[in-house]
Specification:
Order of helices and strands: HHHHHHHHHHH
Largest sheet: none
Shape: rod-shaped
Distance between the termini: 52 Å
Helix content: over 70%
Strand content: under 5%
Number of helices: 11
Radius of gyration: 31 Å
Structural class: mainly alpha
Length: 255
Amino acid sequence: MLTSYTLGKLFKEEFIEFLRSIKDICIKNHPEQLNIQLQVDTIVTIVDKLDDTLVYERESNFTKILEQLDLERDDVITGIKHGFLMNLYHDDPAHKDAARLLLDHLEGYGKRIIKLNYEAESTVLINIMQDYKTNDHLKMALKTVDLWDWAQRIDRTNTAFRVQYRKRITAESATENISFSTLKPTAIKVYDKLVHRLNAYIEIDDIGKYNTIKSELDMLSDRYQQIVKKRTGTTTDQTAIENTNSTNVEDTYPK
């Protein structure tokens, strides 16, 4: 069976899938009859926890989504501000007055709204939209400069951001932020205990009771052994080629 040293060389997804396959093989072979129920139960538990780390890391994609949504709401704020600025130079005094009112109101929340942290910007945009919806003067000014649609975009983009933000918080709290690297050493120890117990019973097995599970686990281990061996061999060969073909850079390109 795969040694703990080789197990440690597997990539994250390979590592988890190997232990999941170990679990499945053991369960299929009736662990209670093979006197390995306790060890298999522990494997089941650790695989579940490892799966949680993958869920958390997948949920970490929320970060990329949040960055995009934050950029979108930043663009809307920047765009509507430029709309106000543009209308300051309108030939209609009503447009100029409306633009000045709206610009003063917006800058009353600070001139660098888009530089605020996620939470602070969310709150500021909520307050701005509340003002737009409840203050008749601001609402009329927005319609005068024909930017009411832009104001609604602020509402939509900020709402979309806050929904995604809450999803990320929920995902993080559900998984307790357990990392794969934190669980990996424990998982290897759990695997070792199962292997040691199985090997002990296989050693004294005179009736072939453990033949099936041994054969299946060995076949699985051989497959993953080949994965590691092939990857290591490729890396070693590539390094050798690079060393053979390399030129002394100092002789060619002076600093």
